[in-house]
Amino acid sequence: MTAVATSTNRVIRDFDRPLWRRVLLTREFAIIGLLLLVIVVASVSIRGFGQPITYNYLLLDVAPILFIALPMTLVIITGEIDLSVGSMVGLASVVTGALVQAGAPFELAAIAALAVGVIGGAFNGFLITVVGLPSLAVTIGTLALFRGLAVGLLGTTAVTDFPEIWTDLAKAKISGTQIPYIVIPFLIVLAVFVIVLHFTPFGRGIYAIGLSKDAARFSGVNVDRTKFIVFVLSGLVAAFAGIFFTLRFGSARGDNATGLELQVIAAVVLGGVSVFGGRGRLHGVVAAVLLIGVLSSALRLAGVTSDVINIITGGLLVFSVVAASVLTWAQNLRLKRPVRPAVSPAP
């Protein structure tokens, strides 16, 4: 049998290098190395960046992005996209605030917000898997729908009367450190997603769908059910991020987390997840989220305006996409070269 090499298929030549080179010389570890380099350079050159309190605020700032990036990775690996996560964060925030304002206990309000996230994710999944609409069109529509519902529920008002025990917990630090408590639930959720994506048949099905939906279906993968589940997870985690966002800033507003979906997608793509599906790993995504957060924090401390920060972040994203395409082209070109025989033929 002859193996045909494509941009997504793995052939024997992919394993002709030592294990350490296959593990370390990857895009994900390049992002990790760049993250460490930026931290070192910023700590040396920017006054105040190396302080523990800086890392505390940095982790609090990127926590919603870290959470949402996990299910977004699964969505994009399947070859789909979810642009509604930022609006879902705002809607969950408003639902929490509106119920608390109406006199409901905060715990009940948070459960209702999570239920709204599940319903919103299921609505996206239904339109994509059952109706057969493209995810880009569906989630652009629900981006506007969820944001409209959020603004319609509260209007221009903001709810700020939340129990202090919860608002303090959202900003609390682990005893004796400057690490916020939110890191603990994130590590638990991260472990769950790593196990599901990288060590279960469900995760292998996600990769298979991204590589080829038809091949995955013939291999026994329930494509529609898998996509439906990942969209429900995306809505659920976005709602949880919305609750944390509300408690962290102590305010529920209809315009909370506007534009957050672009930051999430930028981090996921920068972390090595292919926009065409079928490729990506969670450690690269987490490193990319932290890299964007570190860059933003360092540039703000250096006095750089937010517009320039957005330009730098966007340029980094474009460079990562172009670099990935160039590397894929170079690998395909190398694989198409004829292989010379190792031993000369006998006369």
UniProtKB/TrEMBL annotation:
Location within or outside the cell: Cell membrane
InterPro entries: ABC_transp_permease (IPR001851)
Ranges that cross the membrane: 29-49, 55-76, 83-102, 108-129, 136-159, 179-207, 228-247, 259-277, 284-302, 308-330
Keyword Transport attributed: yes
Keywords noted in UniProt: Cell inner membrane, Cell membrane, Membrane, Transmembrane, Transmembrane helix, Transport
KW Metal-binding (keyword) present: no
Topology within the bilayer: Multi-pass membrane protein
PANTHER family: ABC TRANSPORTER PERMEASE PROTEIN YPHD-RELATED-RELATED, AUTOINDUCER 2 IMPORT SYSTEM PERMEASE PROTEIN LSRD
Protein name: Autoinducer 2 import system permease protein LsrD
